[in-house]
Amino acid sequence: MASLRKILGDRIMEKMRNDDIRKALNHNETIMQRVLVRQHQGLGHVLRMEKNMIANMTLNERLDEKTKSGRPKTTWESAAFSRYDEGPKILTWAAQDRNRWRLLSNHVRAHVDVP
Q1: Structural domain contains residue 84
Q2: Which domain of life is it from (predicted)?
Q3: Residue 39 in contact with residue 21, Cβ under 8 Å?
Q4: Is the entire prediction scored with pTM above 0.90?
Q5: Cα 113 to Cα 86: distance, rounded to the nearest angstrom
């Protein structure tokens, strides 16, 4: 936001809201939207890797350890896959074709719901 404030010539003392700055500069993408799109792109990159690559193995393998009591921790994988209606196998299939994955990426960008 600091760079957008400088472009607009806004001073921090003016207390202008981030939403107002984005509207004034016609910059509609929020930080949360950018993070979700980058996570989607990173997931596609890992899913396209060969099965013996470390990043792909860490995404697909599970450690045999005793589960702790209480609420289970949210993992990056569960957060990434929970955004899609399809399962991990279909997403892996879709990631193999870059054009298909880009279409899905555009869909993610257009339908990001930020709380």
Answers
A1: yes
A2: Eukaryota
A3: no
A4: no
A5: 18
Task: Report the number of distinct structural domains present in the chain.
Answer: 1
Q: Which of 51-55, 56-60, 69-73, 93-97 is predicted least confidently?
A: 56-60
15 found inside a domain: no
State which amino acid sits at residue 111. H
Q: Amino acid identity, residue 71?
A: R
CA angle 89, 92, 95 (to 5 degrees): 150
**CA distance between the termini of the chain:** 19
What does residue 60 show for φ and ψ, rounded to 5 degrees? -100, -20
Mind listing the pLDDT tens digit for each residue in 6-57?
A: 777 766 667 777 778 778 877 777 777 788 888 888 888 888 888 888 887 7
Domain range for 48 is: 31-62+72-110
Ramachandran category for residue 67: left, alpha or beta (phi over 0 → left; psi -120 to 50 → alpha): beta
In a domain, 18, yes or no: no
Q: For 26-36, what is each residue's pLDDT tens digit? A: 777 777 778 88
